[in-house]
Design goal:
- By secondary structure, the chain is mainly beta.
- The protein has two helices and 14 strands; from the N terminus they run H-E-E-H-E-E-E-E-E-E-E-E-E-E-E-E.
- The strands form two sheets. A seven-stranded mixed β-sheet has the order 2-1-3-5-8-11-13, with no helix packed on it. Strands 4, 6, 7, 9, 10, 12 and 14 form a seven-stranded parallel β-sheet that branches.
- The longest helix has 18 residues.
- The chain is globular.
């Protein structure tokens, strides 16, 4: 009987260590640990849990990537009313990877989001985001919904790697529906990133109206 209990304890400990790789703090109703960022389930996907939790007004949310993860790319982070939402690694050499064809592995549809690849608040590049697909892939998309602009969103201190140098994109800023549809956005910043293995580094497609697309840095 003791051996059975010991086996169950080790099994539970192993599963917890293996699958709880993303931690959310500072939110209302979505704090906890998750297997991935982009899984479709609110039980295992941090983005899905935050999307389902409702208003985040006044909150400063932190998503920590505690260990390297393989992403399915199924769920975007939808528009939220938080003060800020930061995604960052918990240690050096953290990797977010996955194979997602004909689109982005990670999709952000919200203002006031910071993806900071430094685990210690310096200029170190400790987070790699990689889409290994070779089929018209891109790694990260910042996408507006309708005519509501995405503003004050930043990607910094990251290593961004695409799966192909043939019609591949590392980072796309556009409408949520895809890189071919112009979007609404202002004050989008890219700082101290290393972009690798792609034909297009940062591709921005804005609707041609006065004041749109300002503040790109």
């Amino acid at each position: 009987m003791k051996k059975i209990y010991l086996f169950l304890y080790i099994t539970i400990l192993f599963c917890t260590t293996t699958f709880a790789q993303v931690t959310v703090t500072g939110s209302a109703g979505a704090n906890g640990t998750y297997a991935t960022l982009t899984d479709a389930s609110a039980v295992t996907g941090a983005f899905a849990a935050i999307n389902a939790a409702g208003t985040q007004a006044g909150n400063t949310i932190l998503i920590t990537i505690d260990a390297s993860i393989v992403e399915p790319g199924l769920t975007a982070l939808l528009s939220g009313d938080w003060v800020s939402l930061t995604i960052k690694p918990g240690a050096p050499a953290t990797v977010i990877s996955g194979l997602f064809d004909n689109g982005p592995l990670v999709k952000i549809k919200s203002s006031n989001v910071i993806i900071d690849g430094s685990f210690n608040g310096t200029a170190s590049r400790d987070l790699t985001i990689s889409n290994t697909s070779t089929a018209n892939s891109y790694v990260l998309q910042i996408g507006s919904t309708g005519i509501v602009p995405v503003t004050n969103t930043t990607v910094k201190n990251c290593i961004v790697i695409n799966g192909t140098t043939v019609q591949g994109f590392a980072i796309v800023v556009s409408d949520e529906t895809g890189l071919g549809t112009p979007g609404y956005f202002n004050d989008i910043a890219f700082t101290n990133n290393s972009i690798q293995k792609t034909s297009w580094g940062i591709y921005c497609n804005a609707v041609a109206v006065i004041g749109n697309g300002n503040g790109l840095a």
